[in-house]
Amino acid sequence: MSQSERLVLATRYRLVSEIGQGANGTVWRGHDELLDRSVAIKELRLPEDLSEDDRVVFYRRTLREARAPAQLRTHSIVEVYDVVIEQGRPWIVMEMIEAPSLEHLIETSGPLPPERVAHIGRALLDALNTAHKAGIVHRDLKPSNVLLDGDRVVLTDFGLAFSSGSASLTKTGHFMGSPAYVAPEVAAGEKATPRSDLWSLGATLYAALEGHPPFERENVMATLSALANESPPVPQNAGALAPVITGLLEKNPTRRLSHARAVDRLERAMAGPRSGRRQTTPRYRLMAVIALIGATVASCGIGATALIVGMMREGPGPTATETTSSPASGDAQVPPGIDTSTLVVRARNDNCKIFVSVPGNVITVLSDETLKADEARQYDQPRINAVIYDASACDVWVNGEQKPVGEPGERKNYTINKE
């Protein structure tokens, strides 16, 4: 047993075994003897040639690495428990996640199917949204910093993250980040922004789909040259995700997909065409069909109005259990199934647009539709993700509890796990 493996940090964190090594140190499997739980411990080693000033900067960066995710309480970001200074160097105590990284999965299994990449992208967009709202830019999003714990997708390693409220600690002349996943403007020396993280997300999802990042070359300089001078390659395996990937890999950050637009495109790609999906006919096509039918049936002596109304009412039923109630208002009778359903949605008016899916390696879409006033849908699946596009237009019950009605145009997301 090595000296490090016998070490107990802060009289409570015992090092158990080495998990892996990187350029900045070692990650250990540990045990918190006070709370009797497994932990991951990141040992950060200082380069021997650091000056005293650089050593101070290193310590400050370490504290920042711990503070950044510690501020962000979300299922998709690794939780930091503690920071310990022992043997003259810092150690970060974190949540232990027994799961492979996206990089490992790509290396061992090759490119992933678009359905799974869509699920990963959606979770990472949520993680970035939480970080960006807190003023934190990750700056090093790449497959090795994404852990896949079953259906859970976890963003880790905020070592290069910075908060808008803290001073920059990057040394002048030092390139920070991973060249194959860094945004073009950052590689050119500009300050990283939330849009830079979105570029890195696009490169990460591209790598998951194609098996390699978009601008990877034989060395760092060739990679940076390609990043500066070449157009992003078109992904060959993206399928419906292609508009998301190309939009995130837009070199001009002002034209790059925003977070909201990326979410919208990704959700559209996840929904896709489905046999059970309620189709809507564009108004100009509908009017043309009505005119044609009217002219035809008039010559045949058929009641055109009855035929047209019947045609407009026909269509495939929804995939969820459908209930109705009246009158058409937000104060209508409570729909049945509230006490037994995981999720119930009822339209307060005709603007109640919903997207409901079951997460997993292959995402199952239950509903992607706009309900008419007082139409209701109920879902009994124990694990559900739901998006309500206009929170003022829908009444929502989760596990029997009615949620507050939102503001006009406000989007609300619900992640439900009853297992």
Automatic annotation (TrEMBL):
It comes from the Bacteria. CDD domains: STKc_PknB_like (cd14014). Residues 317-330 have a biased composition (Low complexity). The chain crosses the membrane at residues 286-312. InterPro entries: Kinase-like_dom_sf (IPR011009), NEK_Ser/Thr_kinase (IPR050660), Prot_kinase_dom (IPR000719), Protein_kinase_ATP_BS (IPR017441), Ser/Thr_kinase_AS (IPR008271). It holds the Pfam family Pkinase. One of its GO terms (molecular function) is protein serine/threonine kinase activity. The keyword Transferase applies. It is an enzyme of class 2 (transferase). ATP binds at residue 42. Belongs to the protein kinase superfamily. NEK Ser/Thr protein kinase family. NIMA subfamily. This is non-specific serine/threonine protein kinase. It comes from Actinomadura hallensis.
